[in-house]
């Protein structure tokens, strides 16, 4: 299979997996403290990643890669999960998901700054148009419900875009699943210690949805999704494949409506169609 096509397929699978992250986080923070949720999911995923690295006898990363791995860890292991968990204390998952529409633009920007990519001007036109459509959809859904929640989500988008671009750049030499695994292992000692310190005295009040949410964000959002995502970005291009994230809000909204019973406007069908056209346009002019 063509490397670029493989990149788009892997990226699409990653987006599908990530689409369940915010609804799962919303379910988890109903019974778990956001800080505990953040460090617990990283500790669980880090333990699984360590097992994988040992089983496959992967070589340790070079010293020059440690700074990049630290950036990945701060962006996607700690920053994005913590900021979104805190935001979801103030806003619904349906509202927070629309901010994900700004993530492709952030990822593409950092792809230029860190990955050395140079998309054509038409690419930026489609990327900005797609982001504008998602932002407009957010206003149609009712606008801002909490300034604090919105600011936290915007901060999450910035650090996540940096973590995506840095991880994709490193994946070209280190490998996709190896990058997220080493980033998780690098943060494991601190995350495990914090998980122990922030652990609630009793889990008796934690309902089944909260446990399922914790399991999903620990295994799929924190590890499995990145295996496909970083491979896709490295194969198909950070800026180009990153545009698939424009579809993530709408996949997530479907999950929010289905699993959490949150209200979702049918107007998202029309917006989704327009966003798909923007993704196609961005793909054509990415290089």
From TrEMBL:
Keywords: Membrane, Transmembrane, Transmembrane helix. It is found in: Membrane. Pfam families: EamA. Signal peptide: none annotated. It comes from the Bacteria. The chain crosses the membrane at residues 7-29, 35-55, 67-88, 94-113, 122-142, 148-167, 179-198, 210-230, 237-257, 263-282. Its main location: membrane. Residues 7-130, 149-279 form the EamA domain. It is a multi-pass membrane protein. One of its GO terms (cellular component) is membrane. The keyword Membrane applies. Belongs to the EamA transporter family. This is DMT family transporter. It comes from Rhizobium daejeonense.
């Amino acid at each position: 299979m063509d490397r670029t096509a493989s990149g788009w397929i892997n990226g699409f699978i990653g987006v599908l997996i990530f689409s369940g992250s915010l609804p799962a986080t919303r379910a988890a923070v109903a019974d778990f403290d956001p800080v505990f949720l953040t460090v617990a999911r990283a500790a669980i995923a880090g333990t699984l990643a360590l097992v994988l690295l040992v089983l496959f006898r992967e070589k340790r990363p070079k010293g020059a890669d440690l700074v990049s791995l630290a950036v990945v860890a701060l962006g996607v292991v700690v920053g994005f999960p913590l900021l979104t968990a805190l935001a979801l204390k103030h806003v619904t998952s349906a509202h927070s998901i629309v901010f994900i529409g700004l993530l492709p633009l952030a990822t593409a920007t950092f792809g230029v700054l860190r990955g050395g990519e140079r998309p054509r001007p038409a690419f930026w036109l489609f990327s900005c148009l797609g982001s504008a459509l998602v932002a407009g959809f957010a206003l149609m859904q009712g606008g801002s419900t909490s300034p604090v929640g919105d600011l936290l989500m915007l901060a999450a988008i910035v650090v996540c875009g940096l973590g995506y671009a840095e991880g994709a750049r490193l994946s070209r030499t280190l490998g996709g699943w190896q990058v997220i695994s080493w980033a998780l292992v690098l943060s494991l000692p601190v995350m495990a210690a914090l998980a122990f310190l922030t652990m609630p005295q009793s889990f008796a009040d934690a309902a089944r949805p909260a446990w399922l949410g914790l399991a999903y964000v620990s295994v799929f959002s924190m590890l499995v999704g990145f295996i496909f995502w970083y491979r896709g970005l490295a194969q198909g291009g950070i800026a180009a494949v990153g545009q698939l994230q424009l579809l993530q809000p709408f996949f997530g909204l479907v999950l929010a409506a289905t699993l959490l019973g949150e209200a979702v406007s049918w107007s998202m069908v029309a917006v989704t169609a327009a966003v798909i056209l923007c993704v196609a346009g961005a793909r054509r002019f990415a290089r």
